[in-house]
Amino acid sequence: MTEFAQDNLKSNLDNPAAPSVLQWLPAAFLLGVVGIGAALAVTSKGARTFPVGQDVVTGQWMGTYEKNNLDPGVPWRDASVNLWGGLNYRAFGEAREGAVVGKDGWLFTSEEFQTDKTDAVEIAGKVAYIKQVRDDLAKDGAKLVVALIPAKARLYAEDLRAKVPGQTAPLYEAFREHLSKAGIPTPDLLAAMRAAKVQGNLFFHTDTHWTPLGAEVVAQVLAPVVKGLNPDLPAATYSASEKPPVQRSGDLLRYVPVPEGEGPAPDTVQEGVYSRTDDGGGGLLGDVTLAVTLVGTSYSAPSQNNIWHFDGALSKALGTEVLNAAQEGKGPIIPMREYLKSQERKHNPPQVVVWEIPERFLRTRY
């Protein structure tokens, strides 16, 4: 499951790169297709077959009728949506709602371009909750470090065609400043990642996530910050290697419904492999309690889709095994809420918790 939060998209996406004709042309196209399809559907034989034994008052009858009779009878529905998406991309260089097309094959999530009148309240609430987490951890003697991951559109602004709303310009630095003033270590990952861009891509062209290099760069920045809190880190050594390069189609390509070869090219990636080389391991089951816990999103979570292995990069940089409590598909807040009440925390009390928070989630309500 990818963590592209399509269900969190707001309705006031402002994309100045889109021609004004796009405000009415998609609606006219789809209305025409749906109108013809609806006429064919209601005159089909299936439309005259009605459900039996379904409750009308609660809407059960209508839901069953729509699902079993009308929907299958509307031809071209999915095909028409994909057809328009393809035409829109070829003619205007625009993706379907959910992604924004940049230059030279770069795609960006629409979340990074959206604003709302409630943003200030939401961001203030995030700051307050992070302080609350800091205080909760402190009761057990643990310290909090926030890894604030800059938005892809901020880091690669030179590859945009659309403009990011002006009110988002100060967001990263302002949020980091709020946390720093509260005594919560929040290193400047934006500056570090900008400096590291000469080494290679830190985000995938066609995906919302960072590359293995991006994860490694951030781990190298975080390691001295964590060590500076003077935790007692059980020693562990790791080797790092890379798998052969492969092509990888990112989660944003689903919003560019064109045949292969006509849209942005897939990314080429070499997955990093981090292997523990000493005799230790498995702090939850053995005698060693792991000192550092990582909480966060799919940028960190262990899964078959995770090829960036941030936990491995952080373990190697710290020279200690990191307990990974990140979760995929839930944003940054819910995994922390669940971790604070978890058996993982109870049985493996941390000395330091690293909380990975992507900037693109700061305005999202949870």
Task: Report on the architecture of this protein.
Strand 1 and strand 2 form a beta hairpin. Helix 1 crosses helix 2, helix 1 runs antiparallel to helix 3 and helix 7 packs across helix 8. The strands form four sheets. A four-stranded parallel beta sheet has the order 3-10-8-9, with helices on both faces. A two-stranded antiparallel sheet has the order 1-2. It has a two-stranded antiparallel sheet with strand order 4-7. The relative contact order is 0.14. The protein has two domains: 75 residues, no CATH class; 245 residues, no CATH class. The longest helix is centred in the middle third of the chain and has 20 residues. By secondary structure, the chain is of the alpha/beta class. Keywords: Alginate biosynthesis, Membrane, Periplasm, Signal, Transferase, Transmembrane, Transmembrane helix.
Name the descriptors.
366 residues, alpha/beta, 2 domains, four-stranded parallel β-sheet, globular, disordered N terminus, AlgX/AlgJ SGNH hydrolase-like domain-containing protein, signal, periplasm, transmembrane helix
Biggest beta-sheet profile: 4 strands, parallel
Number of strands: 10
Helix content: 25-40%
- H/E element string? HHHEEHEHHHHEEEEEHEHHE
Low-confidence stretches: 1-17
Order of strands, main sheet, comes to 3-10-8-9
Distance between the termini: 19 Å
Mean pLDDT: 83
